[in-house]
Amino acid sequence: MKIAVIGCGYVGLVTAACLADFGHTVTGVDHDSSKIALLKQGTSPIYEKDLTPLIRVNTQRRRLFFQTSLDHGVDDAEVVFIAVGTPALDNGAADTAQVMTVAAELAKYIKDYKVIVNKSTVPIGAAKQVRKVIRDHLEAEVEFDVVSNPEFLREGRAVKDFQEPDRVVIGTDSPRAQKVMSRVYAALIKKGIPYIQTNLETAETVKYASNAFLATKIAFINEMANLCETVGADIRTVARSMGLDHRIGLQFLNAGPGYGGSCFPKDTKALAQIGRASGVPLTIVETVITANEEQKARMVRKIKGMVGALQGKTLGILGLAFKPDTDDLRESPALTIIDNLLAAGAIIRVYDPQAMAEAKKIFKETLVYCTDPYNTAEGAEALVIITDWEAFKSLDFIRLRKVMASPVLIDLRNLYTPAEVEQYGFKYENVGRAGYGDRNLPDLHKSG
Ligand code: UDX
Q: What's the pLDDT tens digit per position in 415-448?
């Protein structure tokens, strides 16, 4: 099939490359000419595992093309994906301005029946608005349909998530468009991937509900971790024992400094806003947002609890990205934590395997940028792990102790066990494993 993908950002590029790999002829369109120039040379403007080889091989096979203008690519295409940004507005709602602009522009190129697929995360009801905008801008009476096809791609695993998804969701009111979409995803349907056909609003809601549920799982386990610290329980054992119940599942039960990234914070806020605007208060989602903010604040209090007054004290921070294997700092808990530590007068030394360049853009000369964990630890009163990078899972504690001002490890991702760290003379703090740090454990048995 001939397909156009408008927007060569993270989602658009993965979609274009994977659809070409399914055997379709795909044109990726983006108005950013420097991006298109890179892509034409076979270079991906973003770092995403497995993406560059996929772009190269499909470009060589002449199944993947890139261009800056909508013509040709769009007028030849049977299916046009819209995958442009929907940043958050001040009230948390997703801003659909770019989606609507693209819809108006592409209407000019609809000369015969086309299916317009929205991949961008948009407020529920936006697909119908896309339909209206296109209809208003058509130059002739032509038939077209609009489909909502939400993406569930995780950064760092996006190619695999596209090629082996847990499910594909296709929302449209048109049986004709459903037929076209089942040809687009024939490769996945053949593999037996669950393929859900539904209406527009349902597909749009699935995206928000899925992300909000996952965010809830994280906020819930973080809250349980906080309780564990007080009652004398171990969150890792609680989480594992809970997760072995198949109805709960083991994934997304790692307690930590709070969720970040380009999706969960934005999508939970947008969903809460949709609830408010619809007169249906989504109290759980609202609470998850507050709980996640409070978790970051709690991490700052934890650090202050271990180190005391921070004025003039040196702290080492390991990990800035919102999760490992990315340089993405968007909504990373590290940003809030560092802002608060700086405000309290601490001198911050930082290291992240990928995100240093991004961090320099944000923090400029307010931080000391280091080359590895040991350099970061030099002269530090405490070392704080914020991102669960593989490289931080096997630190040499003897070496760290030698360079630190005092041996204190604050492990906000529970990468270590207390015994492992304490045997090297370290004071150790974590998230949700009681009895460490400076807390007083209540004796629950006495009150009984
Ligand atoms: C997420 C969704 O997983 C994906 O389906 C959606 O399309 C986009 O948002 P992503 O933002 O790439 O993907 O990251 P993910 O791996 O889901 O992690 C999100 C955040 O939650 C990270 O900050 C991570 O550290 C945190 N997290 C995740 C936890 O704190 N604990 C967990 O157990 C899991």
A: 999 989 999 999 999 999 865 433 343 333 333 2
The conformation of residue 391, written as its DSSP 8-state character, comes to G
Q: Is the dihedral of CA 399, 403, 408, 413 positive or negative?
A: negative
**Distance between CA 146 and CA 136 in Å, rounded?**
14
Residue of 50, 215, 51, 208 lying closest to 120 (CA atoms): 208
Q: At what angle do helices 235-243 and 200-231 cross, to 10 degrees?
A: 140
For the stretch 126-166, pLDDT in tens is 999 999 999 999 999 999 999 999 999 999 899 999 999 99
Spatial strand order in the sheet of 382-385: 368-369, 347-351, 314-318, 382-385, 408-411, 427-429
Nearest to residue 92, comparing CAs of 217, 265, 331? 265
DSSP state of 41: T
pTM of the model: 0.93
277 CA to centre of ligand 1 in angstroms: 26
In this structure, are residues 382 and 408 in contact, taking their beta carbons and an 8 Å threshold? yes
Q: Following CA atoms 169, 174, 178, 184 in sequence, which dihedral angle do they give, to the nearest 10 degrees?
A: -90
- For residue 264, give the ligand 1 atom closest to its CA: 9
Active site residue: 8, 18, 263, 370, which one?
Answer: 263
Pocket test for ligand 1, best of 161, 211, 218, 387 (most atoms within 8 A of CB): 218
Cβ atoms of 24 and 184 closer than 8 Å = yes
Tell me the two tokens of residue 340.
């608060």
Ranges assigned E (strand) in 287-329:
314-318
Residue carrying structure tokens 């040499």: 396
